[in-house]
Structures are given as C-alpha cells and as structure tokens.
Design brief:
The protein is of the alpha/beta class. Helices cover about 30% and strands about 25% of the residues. It has 7 helices and 14 strands.
Length: about 200
C-alpha cells in the first residue's frame, strides 16, 4: 500500500482493513533519519495500540545498518511499514542491500509492505524529487509509476512542472488517499488523481 501522507495518524480505517490478520509490523523510520525518528516510532507505537498490532521499530537510519541482521528482523514479519520525509535518504540507505532484499521477500511470500508520503514515492521508479519537481531513479518496487505524495502541500508551479516532465503515469496522492495493490490490480482509495494508466 502506498499512502499519500499522514503515516500512523491519517489512515487508521484503511490500515485496519489492509492489515487484517496481522499481529506484528516492523516499522522503519529510515526516511526520517535527519528529522525526528523517535517521534515517528512513538506515533507508530500508538497506532499499533489502536489497531491491536505489535509494533517492532527497526532503527536503520544509515546504510551501514541495512545488514543481514536487520534483514532477519524483516524476514520474520507479516508486515513492514516505511515512513519518513526523505525519499532520497531512504533510497540511498536501502538500494541493493540485504534489508531491501528482505522487504521484497515480504511481498513475495504474500506479506504486506506499506509506505507513506515520501517513503511511498521512493518505492516507485521513477521517484519524485520534491526539491525541484523532477524525477530520479527510485527503488523500483513499483516500476513505471511516479507518485506525488502530500500533493496538497505542493506549489502549483512545481506540481505543473512535475506533470509536464513525467514520461510515465503519475498519481497525485493527498494525505488520506492511497494506492492498494490487490490480486485484481490497483485499488485507488480517497481523492487520488490519476494521470495515465496504472502499471499492471
């Protein structure tokens, strides 16, 4: 699930539906490494209490932490939640690491990966670069799709520039909206705006 924003505060109803039957989620505040990752973990813990899910924080904040040891924590989880505001940092920490392989392994065995805001943008390829409205190489969990997350905060000119530069489908995802991957394809939840056909 790719959420537009508001991790652990704006999507409880949808989170509860998507995570039905899950009793433990590993939370990675990696993309908030230079902000307030401890506060993110606090929000995640309160969210887990509301949903009846045990939250296990995995404080991988630099690339040096994305090791086999961290991968083993993720490998045993039914769900992984990535949150934080720096898509570039998340990409630099995870790309081509054992931890990234473990996250992909969760999906391959039918588990759930949730990413919110800039972390969701980073899982796509291309990845939106908020600094200028252009695009960069993303992690490629979802290919041929770009997300503009927290779109309600984007200046109009910057948003228009991103749309004009895009050579793949783009989805504008405000806080409270999401894309959910199901067996039937992509489900759009909330006030998302789709530009082009979503990848199969």
């Amino acid at each position: 699930m790719l959420q537009g924003g508001g991790p652990f505060v704006a999507n409880d109803e949808l989170d509860r539906r998507v995570l039905a039957g899950i009793d433990r989620a590993v939370v990675l505040p990696t993309a908030d490494a230079y902000e307030r990752p401890d506060e993110m973990v606090g929000s995640a813990t309160a969210w887990g209490a509301r949903l009846g899910i045990e939250v296990e924080p995995l404080m991988v904040l630099t690339r040096a932490g994305a090791t086999d040891e961290a991968a083993a924590v993720v490998a045993g989880a039914g769900a992984v939640f990535l949150a934080g505001d720096s898509a570039n940092h998340l990409r630099s920490v995870l790309k081509d690491t054992p931890l990234m392989a473990a996250i992909l392994g969760v999906l391959e065995r039918g588990g759930i990966v949730i990413a919110a805001a800039s972390s969701a943008a980073a899982l796509c390829d291309p990845m939106t670069d908020r600094r200028g409205g252009g695009f960069a190489l993303g992690l490629g969990v979802v290919s041929n799709l770009a997300l503009i997350t927290e779109v309600e905060t984007w200046p109009h000119d910057q948003l228009a520039r991103s749309h004009s530069l895009a050579d793949t489908p783009v989805v504008d995802l405000p806080t409270g909206a999401a894309l959910v991957r199901t067996d039937a394809g992509w489900e759009i939840v909330g006030d998302a705006v789709q530009h082009g056909d979503l990848p199969v």
